[in-house]
Design a protein that fits this description.
7 helices, 63% helix, 0% strand, signal, Small secreted protein
Length: 171
């Protein structure tokens, strides 16, 4: 495990649920994959763009993405953001600044993805989550801002809707 000041930061994250989506998952991933080497790529994976079914807003005549497809794409985005956060935690970067950027990107990507879907439970929860992640990302202390009941509720709503749709997520 990490033996410097970051260990305390990670332990605090786990006990305080500061980043209900990102940091908790990052801490769990660190514990589960402690012997794995971190990815050396700092940018988003080349396949991350394919996680969003369409880059344009759907036209009224276009078929909306199903909740199952929406959830599958959302989980890919979530994993990509966790990978980025892991790289920051392991690399010793400015956790506050980088977390804000990651939360902002997460909010933007999830909101854009939700725009490709109809008005299903998963799409509604993703839109709510995207708005909360964006607010937290632009806050002076993104970690504290992300630890709020609205973001926690949206995370639970995404997981419940996606489980029902047959594509479980770990938000």
């Amino acid at each position: 495990m990490i033996n410097d000041g970051r260990r305390l930061a990670c332990a605090g994250v786990k006990s305080n649920r500061i980043f209900p989506i990102l940091l908790t998952c990052a801490v769990l991933a660190l514990a589960a994959c402690g012997d794995e080497k971190p990815s050396t790529t700092a940018g988003p994976a080349a396949t991350s763009a394919s996680a969003v079914p369409s880059t344009a807003a759907p036209s009224p005549s276009a078929a909306a993405v199903s909740d199952k497809d929406l959830c599958t794409a959302a989980e890919k985005i979530n994993k990509d953001m966790r990978t980025k956060l892991m790289a920051v935690v392991q690399g010793g970067g400015d956790l506050t600044k980088e977390t804000g950027a990651i939360l902002t990107e997460l909010g933007d990507r999830v909101t854009k993805l939700a725009g490709t879907a109809g008005d299903g439970e998963a799409a509604i929860a993703l839109k709510e989550f995207g708005a909360e992640a964006g607010k937290a990302g632009s806050a002076p202390d993104p970690g504290t801002a992300a630890d709020n009941p609205a973001m926690e509720k949206a995370s639970k709503d995404i997981n419940a809707a996606c489980k029902t749709a047959g594509a479980p997520t770990t938000f």
